[in-house]
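Reviewers of the previous submission asked for a worked example of the structure-prediction workflow described in the proposal, so we include one complete record here. The input consisted solely of the amino acid sequence. No template or homolog information was supplied to the procedure at any stage.
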Amino acid sequence: MSIEIKAPTFPESVADGTIANWLKKEGENVNQDEVIAEIETDKVVLEVLAQSDGVISKILKSEGETVASSEIIGEFEESDGSSEIKNTEPEKKDKPVKEEKTGTPKTAKTNIDNKKIAPAAKKIIAEESLNSNDINPTGKDNRITKADVVNHLSTDHHEDENFIKSSISKSDRPEKRVPMSRLRSTIAKRLVSVKQETAMLTTFNEVDMLPIKDLRAKYGAEFENEHGVKLGFMGFFVIAAVQALKKFPVVNASIDGNDVVYHGFQDIGVAVSTERGLVVPVIKDADTKSLPEIEKSILEYSEKARNGKLSIEDMQGGTFTISNGGIFGSLLSTPILNAPQTAILGMHAIQDRPVAINGDITIRPMMYLAMSYDHRLLDGKEAVTFLVSIKEQLESPERLLLNL
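From that input alone, the workflow returned the following structure tokens.
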């Protein structure tokens, strides 16, 4: 029985998506709940799962094509379990004919007029310095798909790598052009929009991390044994931010047109860097969570982000964001606002530096803090006082417990 393969139902905030890649080709067997395709949206990559056992019979939307919510992207034949699924792998095209020894390899006669190239295929063609005219297209409307390029590379008639290298002049300046992913494109547009549409300003301070480091050294092992998660630094910053947001509600607010929206909850976004780009999962109702719960949430989101498993719901909302460039060695930076939020806190590397304490010079583990804020809503006094509140709580962890 023929069954339609549909794109997932997108959330209201997602208009459309792009076929990132097909993990299964036409004619391949699939098992129930097996991932057969991936669709990239502006925020996450959504998986398309097989509804039952069967075989892919037709691919209607090739890699790189735009699809709408619940749109049909292919078909597959359901297996009744009574007989083997026939191998319906597409018939191989004529292979290119290699020239004797020198010159450009000849190819079998193919229709290359108005040939289109899928973005994923274009990327490989650029990386491998291939000639698109040498590749047999099998996609819709004479389109070259990623599978076509992979098949071309795997043929015996593919040019020898040494020949390709030797044919490039030493005076050449190699470069490659690849399409920007939807996520990277969205990030770029949002960052430019923030710079253009907000009056962003940054204030700096520094915090002595010795009290937190001593606390982790003293109770870290016991904390991990009790709660099954390591006692990190981010959990303390989240709690300190929550307490400061309660004292300064305007920092937790956002601008909507001519209105100021004051949020009666603290949803803290934690920026996570992935291979696809920066994502910001949100710890919902962080004001109601304990330190162990926050640390578990951070660990869970980090693992999901690395594996590309974050959902739209994981990243929706947020009233304040924390970004930690220190894990990459950044000593000082200016974080950009995560619109429509009013402020963002930037953490940095902990570095031993000489500081004056009670008139004496001593070496302490110091961290620079940076807080960027929208000057349309926040005045300098409020922003600076808010950052000082976070500093005081971290330098006296008992304030976190006493809600001071």
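DSSP finds ten helices and 21 strands in the chain. We consider this example representative of the routine output the project will generate in years two and three.
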